[in-house]
## 1
Amino acid sequence: MITISNLTKYYGKNLAVNNISFTINENEILGFLGPNGAGKSTTMNMISGYLPMTKGTVTIYGNDISKKPMDAKKCIGYLPEIPPVYPDMKVKEYLKFCAGLKKIPVSKRSEQIDYVMRKLKITDVSNRLIKHLSKGYRQRVGFAQALLGNPKFLILDEPTVGLDPEQVAEVREIIKELKKDHSVIFSSHILSEVSAICDRVVIINKGVIRAIDTIENLEKNFTSNFIINIKIDGDKQKVEEVIKSFDGVKEISESRTEEGNINFFSIVLDGDADTVRTKLMSELIAKGFSIIEISTEKPNLEDVFIKLINQPVKKETLSDILESISDESDKTSDNDSANNEKEEN
């Protein structure tokens, strides 16, 4: 398991990540969502050990990344938003270089490199210079280096950026397959992509976590409104009167006459959508109106995301952080003094 506790990052006086905590379970794909500037990449850089934290801890399979960086980093495969590739190296040459940096035994390097090239489907460009590859292929090469050494934990920051739709679908399948043997934290701006492959999601905005849950629970708990669209044959004013007076109808968000006496209504429901919809349809039919067409719009991850990132957030001040760090240092000093006294006794 990967545990992130009270993680905080200041750039000067600017607070980028504000005291966040969450876990990533074994064999889980965790989606990490937020608008631009939310603190996603900063958080991933701190989790990977690339960027020092102002406060907090990151523990990767029992190894604190600040205290045991080498042991922790052996468990990590990291694909940053901009892949760390060297354009003047050939693909296979670059992967050999990365294998050496990761201290993969020489006897296993060729096997590992062949495996990741097959996995990412870049074998056919293995002898080409990286600078001559398309953006999509460079992204795959960066992904391949993250997989080298078979790390338990993968950090993927926007792994499908620059890929065409077919390549995006392929990478999604690769990530889903990786779940069998790895834990994955996966950042993306494409919400449909996150919905398709993630077990849980963390939504962050302005450095503060707004929600952590499964997509199903978020859609259920953070959006209570459903919308039904009805095309109905009947006098518009009379139909509106029936709809507005019905218990469970929050509002008519749109209405228009399409042709003759055919009218379209978009209705926001509050409460149990299925029950309200069924009773409303029965009421309209009982009043003599003919329902031509009906459809339901259920809340989705996009609705949840927009609602959560627009909520106000309370930020910790720099003085709060410094005071907290000071308190922790005092506690550590007190503990050390107590332990020394016991040893002397």
## 2
Amino acid sequence: MVLKYMIEKEFRQMVRNPVIPRLIIIFPCLMMLLMPWAATLEVKNNSVCVVDSDRSALSRRLVEQVGATDYFRVVGYAGSYAEALERVEQGYADVILELPRGMERSIVRGEQPVVQVSANAVNGTKGALGTSYMTQLVQDFVRREAAYAPSPVVRLSELNLFNPMLDYKAFMIPALIVMLLTILCGFLPALNIVGEKEAGTIEQLNVTPLGKWTFIFGKLIPYWVVGLVAFTLCLILARFVYGLVPAGSLLLLYGFAFLYILIMSGVGIVVSNYSATMQQAMFVTFFFMLLFILMSGLFTSVGSMPLWAQAVAAVNPLTYFNSVMRALFLKGSGFGDLLPRFGILVVFMVAFNVWAVVSYKKTE
């Protein structure tokens, strides 16, 4: 009965708050509708400086084709590679396309001319993708224009499993949902309890016979509901805005999401128990959220990280939930495939929630 009144109190406070009800709706919508377009993993509008030593009709057609794509825009010509490199250093160009002398003649004869593509790799991702796009474009052009080409010994056929069109949104949207649950279910409970400390209302609860577990559950259950509502809203937006439907079981997806919500709400309570002010709680929560997100493989592969970073990722609950989300969204994995990650997440859930109860002191 006491737990019921605690939950009712939390929901009433939440509704009366001018920020939280709007945040629950607006934050998921902004994350799902803006982030996949603004934080795109595609690289477009690369500035290209052309060094055309061939000066033939074919080289002009190639340059026109390069400029006609969304990925490149030709910003000018240079008489030499050194001149083009100066433009890259000055920031006027991102990619240099150098067409060799006699390129048209070589292609007509069935030879393979050497076309050099140089990219500014200060931004490594942009440089690598820009080079890859340009290389593929030039190869396709030469293949179409070649009057004669020797028969290849081996023919390669590419097949991209689970994401055949290499759509970056299918890779990013599960990560954004993980980020959303991390922020909502970790940040809000922490600020809620610390806010009561500053207002003095928590002292009134401390003098009551309210048990630790009842207090913790009374604080967390409303945020579990908030997390599931936000999660549902994200799935609806993913379906109707991006056409992305989980390939795996929806029930299994909700089960793992609820387990992860328990973990992050436990983290939020732990932070609040060691924080005396809102400012302190915000800084500590922001630090851990940033650490969790960057060291989880949301946007970069864990296997590509140095060993010390992989060790941090191994004790990061986001690492396992992110892997589960992508497996369920893209691969359609079953519970048997996800059983090891389920066991690890259960350990995290028990550890953080027990820590939250033990660290809560009614004498404050």
